[in-house]
Amino acid sequence: MGEVGGGVVELRDSSGGRSPPSTQRSRSAVSCAVAPVSAAPVAALAEAGAMAATDIARQVGEGCRTVPLAGHVGFDSLPDQLVNQSISQGFCFNILCVGETGLGKSTLMDTLFNTKFEGEPATHTQPGVQLRSNTYDLQESNVGLKLTIVSTVGFGDQINKEDSYKPIVEFIDAQFEAYLQEELKIRRVLHTYHDSRIHACLYFIAPTGHSLKSLDLVTMKKLDSKVNIIPIIAKSDAISKSELTKFKIKITSELVSNGVQIYQFPTDDELVAEINGTMNAHLPFAVIGSTEELKIGNKMMKARQYPWGTVQVENEAHCDFVKLREMLIRVNMEDLREQTHSRHYELYRRCKLEEMGFKDTDPDSKPFSLQETYEAKRNEFLGELQKKEEEMRQMFVQRVKEKEAELKEAEKELHEKFDRLKKLHQDEKKKLEDKKKSLDDEVNAFKQRKTAAELLQSQGSQAGGSQTLKRDKEKKKSKVVHLSMPGAPLAPPASVLTAAANRVHVLLLKAATWS
Amino acid sequence: MDPLRQSPSPSSSRASSPRTLPCEMLGYVGIEAVLDQLKIKAMKMGFEFNIMVVGQSGLGKSTMVNTLFKSKMWKSTMLGLGVPTPQTLQLQSVTHVIEESGVKLKLTVTDTPGFGDQINNDKCWDPILGYINEQYEQYLQEEILITRQRHIPDTRVHCCVYFVPPTGHCLRPLDIEFLQRLCRTVNVVPVIARADSLTIEEREAFRHRVIWAPGTSLGSVGVWRGGECTGGLRSPVCGPQIQENLKTHGIEVYPQKCLDEDVNDKVLNSKIRERIPFAVVGADREHIVNGRCVLGRKTKWGIIEVENMAHCEFPLLRDLLIRSHLQDLKDITHNVHYENYRIFRLNESHVLPRGPGWVNLAPAPASVPAPAGPQATPGPPKVCRWAKDNSDEEF
Fold first, then answer.
1. Structural domains in chain A (count)
2. Of the given ranges (A45-49, A210-214, A393-397, B178-182), which has the lowest mean pLDDT?
3. Which of A363, A491, B120, B205 has a CA-to-CA distance to B298 between 20 and 30 Å?
4. Are residues A100 and A200 located together in one domain of the fold?
């Protein structure tokens, strides 16, 4: 693909008799290097003529040649064509109003857009910060605007306000995410997509007159990289003029010292640079909102009436409402949208994609589909999750098995112990029974001897006296031991017998308890 | 310049719009100032336009470009003066910046010398299709970067002007093949080149359809449509003419019928479609006619004025391309053709199971599968329809 450097000056062929032959020559020349040389004197003249007739084209970079035109071509209608296209598509603008309850956010929106938007005022008893979003269709002459107003409900009402900024940041991110998802789709319809990204954030500062609250600082710091912040002082009819200037200075210095980047109106285009520059100095705007119309002089104007005077909303000496309207709507709406798209959204996109693991440095691979790689990564992640789940399941099963084995062993042990004890018990029982048996035998033997002895005693009691009884008792005591031995003397004395009978009785009792 | 196209209600033309409440404004707010803001921004950034001219040698392509933009874009080559016909098709591209009333336009003209000049012209459209797709590819690569530029330079071909030789008969097979392949990738505007060799009747014959009476055989004269018929026909009509040709082969040239958005568009575009293809004459010399300086071709029997509607239809072409439909050409390239290419490209490298938002490239039934969300625009069906046709197409 080569570049033929056409487009050298010469255009007006009829501007003199000299030109035709030279252009003939220049036409027939094969290389363009020859042509300018041969037509040099004529070219200079014609150039002057051509330049006089047309606009002087400015050289734009990258080595593009600027070529003057010989007549009216007609592409100066291009901006109009573009505008027509945009009109048929319609515009959309999204404003986010952040501020404490009761600072007049809804009233200000009503005043800005000269209409009454629906909605009832919020209470102070919200448990957390929520965002309420409404979309309206506005039409002015042939321009249709789809306006979305999002406002915080319950901001600054809680006792613990540490997490107050989170719902706001999440909402903004959600809008970016929705747009990113649409952009990454394979089949997308971006030109008819309803853009819900927030283009401007109006931050309402309470008119204390001292300085910014720490909640304000923290919230603004979190929001400044995500959205264009325009701080405004709400209900500024509560501050006097001198206090106001001091308040503004204090606010701006606090913002600067904390590194909060608020939206600066663009000053690079000459047409609006001046007005934007002066407006930048008036930030933050001190505004008053009112939807009531009062008769002042002989006109109906939006104003607030106090016993000591009337504050006119559209009076530049009273408040900066007119400035806000100018800047927000009439001068910079397009710039706000562009900044949101090219700066904040791109930043979000970059962070999100890097987080998902994409890199730009893949020159040899085909343009992978972002959606596809995203799917791949998601599947990978799901696969990992599943693997982990499997592992855990296996571990659980293993542990259950181990425990079961343990318990089984313990059960076995217990059984053994039980058996052992039972055996022991049986042994002892047997022993005792043996003993009992032997005792029974003894008792029987003794009974026999006792009967025999009694027989003898009845025979001998007539012959002997009580002396022998005493002697026998002593003898019995000494002969107690010998009673159990087999082969006991056939005729034991009576005292011995009774002692033996006592002992036997005791033994019998014991055996009875043992069995 | 065509009149302001008013769209009835913006809310009806959104695919995914939330529930909206119409609101009446009680006073002037100043929303319409956004139009001026748009204009300022556009003028500061400048515009870009890329045009490609395709046709056999000697049909006056370079001259036509010079005439269109009233400047010496190209050195128009004259045959037989030692310029060898290129053996293969080469594409040459020139970029210029032209300015008018503060509006800067960066114009890129791509020429295709050698097209259709060989004996065997098989696949001579491949380099052209390759070039067009290459531009789409470049843009796609820029778009999917993580850190991308604020304004991606647009080198995609917005319009392809196809020069049909003035045979007076019908479209040649080469023309039909080329048009069929190209009309799905880029906006194609066919023109009858060197139309000064055709009379007015022949032009109309060449252009308009012929309604065949039943039973007529090939070679006889058919009944004419349009009031241009006279008895003095020089050559018998022997086949369906260009518009009929285009219709038979399913070639949709710009402005595409399926992309008309509303009634106004339809009305405007059908007028244009009736006159397609334009019979044009190119000239970059000026002559004096009746005391005026006009661009024209001087012959022994008269001067053909390029900008005279009675002589040729060059003003129509110029108005279409530059004055009224330039932005539309760019928009259709961006929203339809580029999106189709993107869908094709991103789909071809996927091996994963599909999720929401994926294209089903199998031939779809007449009721086109719609993406998620309610359909209120012709936007999604446009893309669907083209994608459906692309499925059996090699790029």
1. 2
2. A45-49
3. B205
4. yes
The answer to whether residues B193 and B165 touch, using CB atoms and an 8 Å cutoff, is yes
How far, CA to CA in Å, does B192 sit from each of B59, B134, B206?
9, 28, 9
- Residue A389 and residue A298 share a domain: no
Domain boundary among A436, A465, A485: A436
Choose the mutation target among A111, A189, A338, A348 for the interface with B, i.e. most B CBs under 10 Å.
Answer: A189
For residue A346, being part of any structural domain is answered with yes
Q: Do A7 and B76 touch (CB under 8 A)?
A: no
Contact B39 A69 (CB under 8 A): no
Is residue A221 located within the same domain as residue A161? yes
Residue A194 has pLDDT above 50, yes or no: yes
Whether A243 has a pLDDT exceeding 80, the answer reads: yes
Among B31, B103, B318, the residue with its CB nearest the CB of A140 is B31
Chain A residues in contact with B318 by the CB 8 A cut-off are 73-74
Percent of chain A with pLDDT over 90: 27
My answer on whether omega of the bond before B255 falls inside 30° of 0, hence cis, is yes
Inside any domain, residue A142 = yes
Residue A293: is its pLDDT beyond 70? yes
CB contact under 8 A, B70 and A58: no
Question: A293 with A227, same domain?
Answer: yes
Among A3, A194, A376, whose Cβ lies nearest the Cβ of B17? A194
**Contact (CB<8Å) B40/A82:** no
Mark B240-249 as b/e (b = at least 16 C-beta within 10 Å): bbbbbbbeee
pLDDT in tens, B193-226: 888 888 888 888 887 742 222 333 333 343 333 3
- Helix (H) or strand (E) holding A291, with range, is none
Contacts of B10 in chain A (CB under 8 A): 89-91, 137, 144-146
**Cβ-Cβ contacts under 8 Å, B347 against chain A:** 186, 369
A245 in the same domain as A194: yes
Q: Same domain for A276 and A129?
A: yes
Angle between helical axes of A214-223 and A165-184 (0-180°, round to 10): 10
Give this complex's ipTM.
Answer: 0.71
Q: How far is residue A69's CA from residue A53's CA, in Å, rounded to a whole number?
A: 9
User: What DSSP assignment string belongs to B8-41?
Assistant: S-GGGG-SS----EE---SS---TTHHHHHHHHH
> Which of B72, B262, B328 minimises the CB distance to A8?
B72
Q: Which of these ranges, A78-82, A154-158, B233-237, B320-324, has the smallest mean pLDDT?
A: B233-237
For residues A321 and A223, state if they share a domain. yes
Which pTM does this prediction carry?
Answer: 0.66
Chain position carrying tokens 């959606």: A371
Chain A residue numbers with beta carbons less than 8 Å from the beta carbon of B148 are 346
pLDDT given at position A274: 86
**Closest chain B residue to A142, measured at CA:** B6
